[in-house]
Amino acid sequence: MPQNPDAFTRLINALKILPNVGPKSAQRMAYQLLQHSRSGAQELAEALQHALKQVHHCTRCNTFCEGGLCDICADQNRDPRRLMIVHMPADVSGMEAANCHDGLYFVLMGQVNPAQGMDLSHIALDKLVERLQNSEVEEIIIATNFTAEGDATAYVLSELFKNLPYKVSRLARGIPLGGELEYVDAGTLAQAVYERKMLKE
Amino acid sequence: MPQNPDAFTRLINALKILPNVGPKSAQRMAYQLLQHSRSGAQELAEALQHALKQVHHCTRCNTFCEGGLCDICADQNRDPRRLMIVHMPADVSGMEAANCHDGLYFVLMGQVNPAQGMDLSHIALDKLVERLQNSEVEEIIIATNFTAEGDATAYVLSELFKNLPYKVSRLARGIPLGGELEYVDAGTLAQAVYERKMLKE
Ligand SMILES: [Zn+2]
Ligand SMILES: [Zn+2]
């Protein structure tokens, strides 16, 4: 497409890195940014640079965080005996909005993909094991998605905890089958926490 | 949401400038970029900065372009007697892919919105009038969308050309009603050009 200058084509290609953005959407986004949202485009560029530089992982729960500890891990009012394990930061946001968990979190920052041979390198298992050492944790709530990946991840976690002295539960299947946590409303999330199914006492 | 650090929240907000990206998508994009596509995020930031600096408007056809003239306007083999008027750069790409127009283009970089009082400030009418002065243009092909905005834009253009010495046509309505050019396949696009309806001889 010769009428696309290099810098424009480069922007289109760069936008395709975003999830669910194909060539057509990327072209439309690039047009929108350059023609109608130049200040927004500038802010996006700066926000990306800033986030790449500033955002690290909480040393305790592994979520995104700017200092050493995130706000939740640093909060003395949270109950350190209950640890909820989730896939990604958006799931923590959802749980907090549902206001149904007063314990702490651990964020795996990934899921196990059963279609790709149950590769465990995408989830922060080592960091989780380290987190549990000499901790006050008594109960672990597995809050992974109810999808093939979420089920596989829950299976890996339940195997990991099998011979360890924790109560282990998983969210109640009040969440719609195939549903992902970040698209579930607060009420349904809360219900699923209250009715969580014990896997091991 | 206290667990979102400032730089992460800022990135989420910045992503919401993109078309069709709401809070949930933005959160997912930010997670994807920082956790799984850091080099892609870096490239996106740089591509944005580069495009904001380098991409200007072609002095002749008004499309995005890095130098003074875009490749199509600079091409001596294009027929300067036929000028096709489109909404945005993606429409030029689509036409070129359909390989059905050997003339030149003019890109309005906007549409008239009939729901907002037919405000003409969003389309480059002044630049179009300037483009036509002392030009070799004999025929004008209006290739706006077949939507309310595209129809309103075509109406404004046909009024503009009413007393001017050009043949004026609009794309044949082979394009599905309500359809936008960028989502139409090349064959349908070509058909619509070949069967264009004369508005004025
Ligand atoms: Zn933390
Ligand atoms: Zn041009």
TrEMBL record, chains A, B:
Pfam families: RecR_C, RecR_HhH, RecR_ZnF, Toprim_4. Transmembrane segments: none annotated. One of its GO terms (molecular function) is zinc ion binding. It comes from the Bacteria. Residues 81-176 form the Toprim domain. A zinc finger (C4-type) spans 58-73. The keyword Metal-binding applies. One of its GO terms (biological process) is DNA repair. InterPro entries: DNA_Rcmb_RecR, Rcmb_RecR, Rcmb_RecR_Znf, TOPRIM_dom, TOPRIM_RecR. The keyword Thylakoid does not apply. SUPFAM superfamilies: Recombination protein RecR (SSF111304). Keywords: DNA damage, DNA recombination, DNA repair, Metal-binding, Zinc, Zinc-finger. May play a role in DNA repair. It seems to be involved in an RecBC-independent recombinational process of DNA repair. It may act with RecF and RecO. Belongs to the RecR family. This is Recombination protein RecR. It comes from Neisseria dentiae. The gene is recR.
